């Protein structure tokens, strides 16, 4: 097996005395893991940071073997790790992607969306510049992996008018009239999720609660606790940033 491609670094795990197993997302082949010799060295630590873009070359004699990976830095987002909020956003977005995607299957929409999200965080570190894009990315991950929400019609009336809630059980939208008497049992559906455009902070908070419910139930159920802990740290910092 031989693959040379640009990739977004998602996760780095120590292996052996100085090596590292690196998981990175390519547009062509999806999530790829590889062993980087000296991956924890002083020279490579700044290269192998979540969110960085590398030129990777994966080589293995068989499909079952963990490939050897050599890396060259193409774009560094390391300066953003000096700021707690962008750093937490990078940590969560890359951890979610690494935990949820299967290896070796291309997800070009996910790659493109993650690249756009990381670019948005880098361009405008303040949360209002990218928090809505983060919600959309989380919902895209759900959709791409078969757990997408049905936001095109009301579960109660069958119409697409004034959709304002989502059923936490079915993931289907509910109109304002169809939700009368049941509002407390439903998740709020912010308008920007369906119609796009800008979002106020209350809408972003509602969007984060919406995506969190389905991420935890459907996509990350049984996954390592530290993945959800990364999201908790991000949400805490988001709340403090706008308090």
From TrEMBL:
<dbReference type="GO" id="GO:0043590">
    <property type="term" value="C:bacterial nucleoid"/>
</dbReference>
<dbReference type="InterPro" id="IPR042242">
    <property type="entry name" value="RecO_C"/>
</dbReference>
<feature type="domain" description="DNA replication/recombination mediator RecO N-terminal">
    <location>
        <begin position="3"/>
        <end position="76"/>
    </location>
</feature>
<keyword id="KW-0227">DNA damage</keyword>
<keyword id="KW-0233">DNA recombination</keyword>
<dbReference type="Pfam" id="PF02565">
    <property type="entry name" value="RecO_C"/>
</dbReference>
<comment type="function">
    <text>Involved in DNA repair and RecF pathway recombination.</text>
</comment>
<comment type="similarity">
    <text>Belongs to the RecO family.</text>
</comment>
<dbReference type="InterPro" id="IPR012340">
    <property type="entry name" value="NA-bd_OB-fold"/>
</dbReference>
<dbReference type="InterPro" id="IPR037278">
    <property type="entry name" value="ARFGAP/RecO"/>
</dbReference>
<dbReference type="Pfam" id="PF11967">
    <property type="entry name" value="RecO_N"/>
</dbReference>
<dbReference type="InterPro" id="IPR022572">
    <property type="entry name" value="DNA_rep/recomb_RecO_N"/>
</dbReference>
<dbReference type="GO" id="GO:0006302">
    <property type="term" value="P:double-strand break repair"/>
</dbReference>
<dbReference type="GO" id="GO:0006310">
    <property type="term" value="P:DNA recombination"/>
</dbReference>
<dbReference type="InterPro" id="IPR003717">
    <property type="entry name" value="RecO"/>
</dbReference>
<keyword id="KW-0234">DNA repair</keyword>
<protein>
    <recommendedName>
        <fullName>DNA repair protein RecO</fullName>
    </recommendedName>
</protein>
């Amino acid at each position: 097996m031989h693959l040379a491609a640009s990739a977004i670094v998602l996760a780095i795990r120590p292996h052996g005395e100085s090596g590292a197993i690196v998981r990175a997302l390519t547009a062509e082949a999806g999530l790829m893991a590889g062993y980087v010799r000296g991956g924890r060295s002083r020279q490579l630590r700044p290269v192998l940071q979540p969110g960085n873009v590398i030129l990777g070359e994966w080589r293995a004699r068989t499909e079952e073997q963990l490939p050897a990976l050599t890396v060259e830095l193409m774009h560094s987002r390391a300066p953003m790790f000096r700021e707690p909020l962008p750093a937490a956003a990078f940590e969560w977005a890359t951890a979610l992607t690494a935990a949820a995607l299967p290896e070796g299957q291309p997800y070009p929409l996910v790659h493109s969306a993650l690249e756009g999200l990381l670019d948005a965080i880098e361009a405008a570190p303040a949360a209002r510049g990218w928090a809505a894009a983060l919600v959309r990315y989380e919902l895209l991950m759900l959709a791409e992996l078969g757990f997408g929400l049905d936001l095109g019609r009301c579960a109660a009336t069958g119409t697409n008018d004034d959709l304002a809630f989502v059923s936490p059980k079915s993931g289907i939208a509910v109109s304002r009239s169809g939700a009368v008497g049941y509002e407390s049992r439903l998740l709020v559906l912010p308008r920007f999720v369906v119609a796009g455009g800008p979002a106020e902070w209350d809408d972003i908070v509602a969007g984060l609660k919406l995506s969190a419910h389905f991420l935890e139930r459907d996509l990350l159920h049984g996954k390592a606790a530290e993945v959800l802990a990364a999201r908790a740290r991000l949400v805490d910092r988001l709340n403090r940033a706008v308090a």
